[in-house]
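@channel anyone free to eyeball this complex?
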Amino acid sequence: MQAKAKQWLLVLPALALLAAVLLVPLGRSLKLSVAGGSLEHYKSLFTDGVTLTVLARTAATAAVVTLIAVLLGYPYAYLMTRVEPRLRGLLMVIVLVPFWTSVMARNFAWVIILQRGGPVNSFFRLFGWDLVLYQSVAGVAIAMSQVLLPFMVLPLFSALSGIDRRLLLAARGLGSHPVRAFWKVYWPLSRGGVVAGLILVFTLSLGFYVTPALVGAPQQSLVAQLLGQRTTQLLDFEGAGALGMLVLVVTLALVAWANRLGGTISAIGLVAAAPAKGARS
Amino acid sequence: MPTLISHTEPTAPARTGTQIRLAGVTKDYGLAAPAVDDVSLTIEPGEFMTLLGPSGSGKTTTLNLIAGFETLTAGSIAFDGTDVSNLPPHKRNLGMLFQNYALFPHLTVAQNVAYPLRERKLAKPEIARKVAEVLELVQLTGRDNHHPAQLSGGQQQRVALARAIVFGPNALLLDEPLGALDRNLRGTLQAEIHRIHREVGTTFVFVTHDQEEAMNLSDRIALFNNGRIEQVGTPEDLYQRPETLFTATFLGDSNVFDASPAPDGTFAWEDNIWTVDRSTVSARAAAGDHVALVVRPEDVRLEGAVPADANAVTATIRDIEYMGAYRTAVLALGHDGVAGRARLDALAADFRPGQAVTAWWPVARQHIVATL
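replying in thread with the prediction:
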């Protein structure tokens, strides 16, 4: 019992910090949003004709970003498990580069790449298509995918490198075509990592502010911009509090749902690692 | 295709397996020497063939070539006379048992065992019946809904065994399947594999580096060394009639006297001239110049008068090792003190380290083997 109490002592500083910088402001926002005991601000979220559209656009953008990330990230993480350690390190660095670049530099770079007359526009004009991704939802999604890719690749890499490749040999020996062996054995064992990556990328996408503000069009703002507008320009703290609460609840609900989905899967993933360890000892 | 286990006649060994024929099989990874070098071997239907050898001798690569996990550099592999050299593994219809069990962790025991049947698109009731049957055979009835991680190592390997035989494979390939288990469990599973080979009656190809395992289980052993087969034969052939020094020393202990035979057929070692019985000269030793005389420790005596039909050498006892059922005298043989061993049975006299003795053995118990 005493040892346990001491363990709690160790996390006390972190808990205190979280309480001071997260729970207290969150409580104040909540209190503001229901100021005067009315749910007026929540009601207006659904009736002002803007909030729901922006929320839907944000969710759609986040979904596209997540899809791009998993489509790019899965083969990338798979490759990382297959190459020699030095090349693996290099692949890791490449995926982390956007992480280490300044937010502003990265986003202005995207503006230059995507704007009219930029390399992407010039390339498509060769084929007679005057495609401008700057100030489009697609452009925002591409720029967001770049910086969010590590959040997909890292959990996926960790999940994939835990999969015993001899299971694929076993499946082939038991009569499975290599492609079928992948879908019946490798894919189910990687699902825990996929779900973890999906949750991370999707929830992070929901809160993106700088990229949609710089790369996107003002008339196509996402929910973070709407929040910013309400707090810094309209000074509508009550409305902003209500919107913040709504986003928080939606996000938590999604995470809870995905966790239930991934919970059973990651339990299996944990089990999967056990026999391999036993065999080595 | 052989049918699954027949429970009506459990004792009749139905030899229904496939004949596996390796002809000039070679696998070269481009290293200094080929991993498998011109191996030819015919494994008869229903036979329990063990590929035995030290690590790196090419036995596992040979098994992977039979399974189709590796491609041949040269040579061919045929099942029942049909060339399968270019057939992918999933079309070879072979059961495979791995050292790490390779059970699918996301599937239950029953789903694991049903896997090859599902891949063969069998009807559901038939799958259920075969799974129940084979789980009974490996004595795991009632564990259907467990996940592999909930089972012990021995149980996991029995599930893997069930999964490998449930679809009536052409042959069962076993890649050191007992290597990860502790000693007691290994013995139990050895007996289990032996029994299942008898009951299923299909061809078994078993890879191991453990000579005891090989001796206990096999109909025949192919002893591998440096990518080549050193000798093929029954366990008794290999132990009692070794062709080469490698065979004589890899299987069991041997006292080795390295020398050349005299033209008169005798064998000279230091200042001893030993009688040689023609029947104990291996074919490969007769064909070459590089030979050695070997004697098993259990054939060496240290007491009593040396009979006429025996060879003898002076020796000094270096140490006595107590092994429980018997003792082993560690010897220094001849003037140069070549290391040797003699087994002392329970009734043998007490010897002390440092004691000088005469070590002798019946001429018929020695072997002249090739050293190259």
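from a first look: Chain A has one domain: 46-273.
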